[in-house]
Amino acid sequence: MGVLNVTPDSLWGGVGAIDPEAALGRLEEMAADGAAICDVGAESTRPGAEPVDAEVQLARLSGVLRALAVAPAPLALSIDTSLARVAAAALDAGFTLVNDVTAGRSDPALLPTVAERGGAVCLMHMRGDPRTMQSDPRYDDVVGEVREHLAARLAAAVDAGVPEERVLLDPGIGFGKTLEHNLALLAGLPVLAELGRPLVVGVSRKGMFGTLLGREVAERMPASVAAGLAAVARGAAVLRVHDVRATVDALGVWTAVEAAGGR
Ligand code: HH2
Fold first, then answer.
1. Which end of the chain is more exposed for a tag (fewer CB within 10 A), N or C?
2. 46 catalytic per annotation
């Protein structure tokens, strides 16, 4: 899953407003690089970010939405939003997945909107909200608590009418977690996989690599690819990444070695 942030203030690679032609170009490039899904976001959720209302998100997304009115996307599209209005507009324009970092908790209309339109949803774990989530997060048992939360949000989605087969789960690396919490969650992915749903993992260029290796955002690509491989080795089904080609190449090598071992 490649990331296309139409935001002026994202952690990495945000492009601000783009016209339909540029939007289509980005999607084609991402598909050619080997992404199966593009996650389009119009709101930064980096630590400290303020919420962005539906009007602004839709204005930022208008280039992408207008592009889809002209031609279908060359890969599956996911909308990274917590707001039902934005999710509805994206699903109506041809998106098939709603990626909600609040797992349906911030807008009670989000899960019913996904259910009504036959979409899929990615439910992510977050402690607190982006404004406050990194101020001293604590857990007794981070893997167990994240598992419990994701199980409850999966049940809420099913209650709202989203079939279980259309739900993906995400431990929310960096969302209300210290480096130790993030590493425990990556190591503990097999426990989360017991919930029976595909796991999405987003580590790309995140702050944990600043803490672990002292790298700035611009220098975090190799670390991100390595962490992505470690996640896949422990059961991640989808990697949410900024660097599609590098990730796809690394996965190609890893998969080939794995396949050779099974012969
Ligand atoms: N991380 C970010 C945003 N959305 N969604 C899921 N499911 N999982 C994640 O780990 C995740 C996410 C933050 O990364 P990014 O989009 O690069 O930054 P920003 O929120 O500043 O645009």
1. C
2. no
Spatial contact of 167 and 157, defined as CB atoms under 8 Å apart: yes
Question: Whose Cα sits closest to atom 11 in ligand 1?
Answer: 202
Q: In the predicted model, is pLDDT for residue 163 greater than 70?
A: yes
75 DSSP assignment: S
Q: Is the pLDDT of residue 99 over 70?
A: yes
Question: Is the distance from the beta carbon of residue 10 to the nearest atom of ligand 1 less than 6 Å?
Answer: yes
44 ligand 1 Cβ < 6 A: yes
Q: Tell me whether residue 240 is one of the annotated catalytic residues.
A: yes
CA distances to 60, 89, 100, 132, 254 from 54, in Å: 10, 10, 14, 21, 40
User: Per-residue DSSP letters for 128-186?
Assistant: S-TTTTTSS---SSHHHHHHHHHHHHHHHHHHTT--GGGEEEE--TTSS--HHHHHHHH
Kindly compute the dihedral angle of the four CA atoms of residues 185, 188, 191, 193, in this order, to the nearest 10 degrees: 70
Sequence-ordered alpha helix ranges (H) in the chain: 20-32, 54-70, 84-93, 110-116, 142-159, 179-187, 189-193, 208-213, 221-233, 244-261
Question: What does the block give as tokens for 85?
Answer: 């209005």
Q: How many CB atoms lie within 10 A of CB 87?
A: 29
Token pair recorded at residue 21:
């032609």
Alpha carbon nearest to ligand 1 atom 17, residue: 11
Nearest-angstrom CA–CA distance, 6 and 204: 17
Mean per-residue pLDDT, 147-166: 98
Q: Mind listing the pLDDT tens digit for each residue in 218-245?
A: 999 999 999 999 999 999 999 999 999 9
